[in-house]
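Lay summary. Proteins are chains of building blocks that fold into shapes, and those shapes determine what they do. In this project we predict the shape from the chain. Here is one chain we studied, written as its sequence of building blocks.
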Amino acid sequence: MANCFDNVENESIEQCVNSELQAGISEVNVHYAFHAHATLIPMPLNLGDPGFTYEKAVEVTEDITFPVGKGFSKVTVMPDTGEVVYETPGNKGNKKNKQSFTFSIAGNSKKALGMLRTVKNVPMIWMVPERDGQKRQLGDANTAAYLTEGKATTGKGGEDDKLITFTIETYAIPIVYGGALTINVPPVV
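And here is the predicted shape, written in a compact code that computers can read:
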């Protein structure tokens, strides 16, 4: 019986101990799109594909494409509230991929509350830039990202936060996106 790892090279992962590793996400340029609007969502290489490496297992350099007038929209995230977490839940020999993105939007504007109401069951794709410029993609060609929790608060007192907190989850593979973002340009009414 052939082993599925016969042609896979084990690779060293080295890190300079003096590297400046900026933690967190960039609160600017977080974007989302509706999964159904995408006409092409490229995927990383899979185990067994020619050219497979650890990096190619999560890297996408091709653009996600959309029809004219569709694409990604921007969300301004409250500083120091966003985080992307990748986990591998499941039992030994049957691990899964899971990513979550929790963030807050300052205030309770009608537009932000309306977004929370509208996207609560909508399959999406999210692009989240890390502070070092690397873009994390949540949702892929086979598995969308969904809002799993949303909470809007007015705050209780003068020093409390008035904000909306969102949690987006997907059981998609982790992807580092290197393509361009097609920005949604709504028609002028």
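What the prediction tells us: DSSP finds one helix and ten strands in the chain.
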